[in-house]
Amino acid sequence: MNNQVYINALACISPQDTLNAEQFLQSSEFVSGSPMRSIEPTYKEHIDRRYLRRMGRMVRMGVAAATKALADADIKNPDAILVGTGMGCLEDTEKFLRAIYESDENIASPNQFIQSTHNNVAAQIALMLGCYNYNFTYVHRGFSFESAMLDAILHVQEAGENKTDILVGACDELTDMYLEVTSKLNIWKSKVPRHSLKYNMGIKSEQGEGAAFFAVSNQRSQNTIASLDALRMVYKPQSSARLTDEIDHFLARQSLTLDDIDLVLLGYDGGGQKGDVYDEVVNSVFDGKNQAVYKHLCGEYKTAGAFATWLSCEMIRQQHVPEFVKWNAFEIDTIRRVLIFNNYNSANFVLSLLSHV
User: Which of 224, 247, 266 lies at the terminal end of a domain, its last residue?
Assistant: First the structure.
């Protein structure tokens, strides 16, 4: 039985020019600032205008990224559509709640409610494709994207030798109201452009957003980019020792050691304090390894792990690590395996292993 998960195509909309992936990774510049809003494409190039005018901003980002990934993989109708989102369609939710308030809690337009639901992105993709297959949206905070990817892994395992094509991705958006509320909590960096990778501990990264989608399958194609070998989620480990054990067991189950990992992609958000579990593990377990970071590129949000997966796949595909993601100084000729070690809010920890095929 073939349980391998192959990533055959991908697309990402983010605060960087990531739709032009090769150009972005080969450049020496990146966008910084706060908040980090996505660079949006010309949507009519990706979405039929008949659908476009009814879509909110996050739906447009998600559908455009999904459409590009499917087109690049030459998939007309996926066997499953799996989406992760931490906050859902915030803009449409705000519109719906505002309409209820302004109408003195009378009945609002049902369209506003439908467009505000968390599964709106997955539903719009299915409607556009005429896809009646398995369709599911995960809202699991910092595990939202990874839960969707885990579902894709289970689909591959169930399919056995039968070919299965799955669309999996994640999206989240920023709104002015969200920024206003969270800024009052003083957890974000000040609104000053930053070109250094080093974070001020105790202050989180800039607020971010984005959409990243992947066409995955249990069969390789001539355009296969990478394989997802393993995925592990750890919720609120009580100590750095527990998290270290999880990493050791994670690699051991793949018959690997840290010496087999060419690059570790870290999900530093800058919010850790002295003695933080994540920081302790990075400094002890991954000391001396090739380390890279990414949240200075996309900001912090609940599904930033999707951006990390996109970036890892592109670095594997292009066999290139941009200078602006390197956490320590290193040179690398061959990228065979990338280990993503993500952290959201010191509660959701993710280990993800991607390999060159």
Answer: 224
Report which of 224, 226, 229, 228 is spatially closest to residue 73, judged by C-alpha positions. Answer: 224
The rounded distance, in Å, linking the Cα atoms of 295 and 269 is: 6
For the stretch 200-229, pLDDT in tens is 545 567 889 999 999 999 999 999 999 999
Q: In this structure, what CATH number is given to the domain that contains residue 237?
A: 3.40.47.10
| Tokens of residue 322, six digits | 């941009």
Q: CA torsion 40→42→47→48, rounded to 10°?
A: 150
Question: What average pLDDT does the segment 167-194 reach?
Answer: 80
**Which three-class secondary structure state does DSSP give residue 61?**
helix
What span, in angstroms and rounded, lies between the C-alpha atoms of 251 and 229?
10
Q: CA end-to-end span of the chain, whole Å?
A: 18
Helical segments of 74-134, H only: 90-102, 110-116, 120-129
User: Which 8-state DSSP code applies to residue 214?
Assistant: E
Whole-angstrom distance, CA of residue 265 vs CA of residue 325: 9
